[in-house]
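Wed. Picked up where I left off yesterday with Citrate transporter. The coffee machine is broken again, so keeping this brief.
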Amino acid sequence: MLVAVPAHAAGLPAVSGIPVDFILFALTLLGVALFHHHTLKVALTGLAVISLYKIGFTGFNEGAGVTGWLAHLQHEWVVLTNLLGLLVGFALLARHFEDSGVPHVLPRFLPDDWKGAFVLLVMVFVLSSFLDNIAAALIGGTVAATVFRRRVHIGYLAAIVAASNAGGSGSVVGDTTTTMMWIDGVAPLDVTHAYVAAVVALMVFGLIAARQQQAWQPIQKDASAGKHVDWVRLGIVTWILAAAIVTNVTVNTRFPEISDSFPFLGAAVWVAIVLAAPLRKAEWSLLPDALKGSIFLLSLVMCASMMPVEKLPPASWQTSFGLGFISAVFDNIPLTALALTQGGYDWGVLAYAVGFGGSMVWFGSSAGVALSSLFPEAKSVGAWLKGGWHVALAYVIGFFFMLAVVGWHPHTPHKAETAAPVAVQPAH
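Structure written out below (tokens, as returned):
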């Protein structure tokens, strides 16, 4: 369970021992949950209120007042710009993949009964390992809408989001949270053991959700007849992903001293998109909505970066387990930002917790937010919890299976400027 340490010792304003910073952040996230039709306004308002509070009362690690705020922005601009480039760029990449015809051809290879629904979730899982969880969820939703004739059970929608988040949890190009870890300096191999838990979780929620969907609306494989693959568009998808992977590996392994000075990853994605434009036109009309959604997420990340993380509990498997549940309502992107600033986690365990844990509620992950744009009925917390109860069950089973098989192996802080020394606890 996540409990704030009393702030009076550090002289920070607090209510019942909880720093006001966290209270303001929690209210912002509560507003996002309650007013899901006005999420951008709520996030920007929260960012403005927290910024003004920090400027007027507590200051920043970089200094006090407006000067400290500007210095903090300068410190965070590379991470924020990288995320902006990836989030908006992957929206175009997802459309390239959709227009390639692959999502429409895939149903030909699906079994006719509940096993077809399960295999589709497996496909989403695999796609998410290299295609980003947002793109994988949108592709999975597009295929599901086709083969189930738009009658998709909300429990199955939750499973699509869960499959995309589980598949991306062990890959630094598969989830926004793991990409954040990579951008921040975490080694790609340090998150791969998240798959130990993710595969188990997939078996749990996938089998249940597949039977839910079969009972609700059986699969219709003939919907894909006459569709063909556009190999040029599929090549563009591969080209963009390759540009991102090669750039990030090169910068972080050969030139780590400049990795924090420029948003190389985001820039690489956009250079690749622009260079591929003469071959197939990108769907530029997606940019306004993608930009709006990205600003919403970046506002939450910026809010998280201003939290007094030295007041968080010590990094431990218990804390990671609790963060999984909190990510369902707290949004896993700012949670990851907090954990990265704190340091000292087993990054694979944390990647599974905050990545998959966000699937338990529709707005707990960017994949859920994206899929809800295709299926507005998903924007009901009650219906999501009732239909997708198996996701929470799968999270718990997967987490403790990973802990039993792999254990808890915390990594030393990967950056010298980590906010405070972090105590780590061994697994019992």
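Quick read: The longest strand covers residues 14-15.
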